[in-house]
Amino acid sequence: MFLKILGTAAGGGFPQWNCNCPNCQAVRTNRAGVNWLNQSSIAVRKNNQPWFLVNASPDVRPQLEKLREGQPSTIRSSPIAGVLLTDAEIDHTTGLVILRESTEKLRVYGTETVRKALTEGYPLLSTLANYCGVQWSVLEPHVPINLGLDGADGLEVEVFPLAAKPPKYMRHQTNLDGVWVIGLTFRDRTTGKVATYAPGLAELDEKILERFESSDCILVDGTCWENDELLALGISNLQARDMGHLPLNTSLKSLAKLSRPRKILVHINNTNPILLPDSEERKIVEAAGIEVGYDGLTIEL
Fold first, then answer.
1. What is the chain's pLDDT, residue by residue, as a tens digit (301 residues)?
2. Edge-to-edge strand order for the sheet containing 217-221?
3. In terms of CB atoms within 10 Å, which end of the chain has fewer, N or C?
4. What is the dihedral of CA 211, 37, 249, 281, to 10 degrees?
5. pTM as predicted
6. What secondary structure does DSSP assign to 164-222, as a single string?
7. Which of 215, 277, 263, 271 minimizes the C-alpha distance to 245?
8. How would you label 138-170 residue by residue, b for 16+ Cβ within 10 Å and e otherwise?
9. Could you give the CA distance from residue 237 to residue 228 in angstroms, rounded to a whole number?
10. 8 Å CB contact between 94 and 169
């Protein structure tokens, strides 16, 4: 099983187009070791089978170019077999519009609440119906599905619910029950290797920690270092928890105790000081045995 990080940053990327925080200024001035980062996404596949894209960010076009290998056999081709959505946030779904040029229906996987949001609140699915079309597959918590094409075995995904709020564009509706955010656990049925992806993490309970501990690799929410990070910079009146993200200075101790998995932080906000290689916060993270992810990182399990 292979996983490739296509985008490590949270919404807005790094640097964010309208932000002049110290981090964004550092990357714009080419400070050593500070890299530009695309918005949150990964890809996963087993051996040489097609890639599955996890979340379609606004940066999807250059991200998909990183998945191409060899010469295409036809004049039109796609490097992915389908798209799995962890939620209905704009940052994770807008890239679907760019994929409208597909010569086949897009295979998209998500929960029923995500399908509803992308139909009624942010009507991407009805828009795509007039272009390439969508083949929607429902993801249900704790019900593993085989991602092998034409019945081929090997790669399995199981989703699990995470505590989070619906997207802003859906909060005016009255019936907001359902699973709005999920994590994904991938299993290679041949080797038994397990990887878990959770870019949005509002809570870290025992069940989630047990899932992480039973994984060989975890890619986990590293959005903000402190809960009031954005407030302190005068950027927003929202705290990390308001946005559905557990701050790292709270989750770090629990993550550090995990003994089995390789631990990699993703979905890192442009304001998070761990993006600076020489920051004290970065040193604390690395001392805890946790990696700061970067675009292009490929994990083989």
1. 999 999 999 999 999 999 999 999 999 999 989 999 999 999 999 988 889 999 999 999 999 999 987 667 788 888 999 999 999 999 999 999 999 999 999 999 999 999 999 999 999 999 999 999 999 999 999 999 999 766 566 899 999 999 878 899 988 877 778 889 999 999 999 999 999 999 999 999 999 999 999 999 999 999 999 999 998 998 888 888 888 899 999 999 999 999 999 999 999 999 999 999 999 999 999 999 999 999 999 999 9
2. 145-146, 155-162, 181-188, 194-198, 217-221, 262-266, 291-292
3. C
4. 130
5. 0.95
6. -PPPGGGTTSS---S--EEEEEEEETTT--EEEEES--S---HHHHHHHHT-SEEEEE-
7. 271
8. ebeeeeebebbeeeeebbbbbbbbbebebbeeb
9. 9
10. no
Q: How many beta carbons lie within 10 A of that of residue 133, not counting itself?
A: 13
Calpha distance 299→289 (Å, rounded): 17
Tokens of 98: 């760019």
| Size (the chain), residues | 301
**Are residues 57 and 92 in contact, defined by beta-carbon separation less than 8 angstroms?**
yes
Half-sphere exposure (CA, 13 Å, Cβ side) for 76?
A: 5
Torsion of CA 251, 254, 255, 256, to 10 degrees: 120
Contact 271, 229 (CB under 8 A): yes
Cβ partners under 8 Å of residue 92, min gap 6: 40, 41, 55, 56, 57, 85, 86
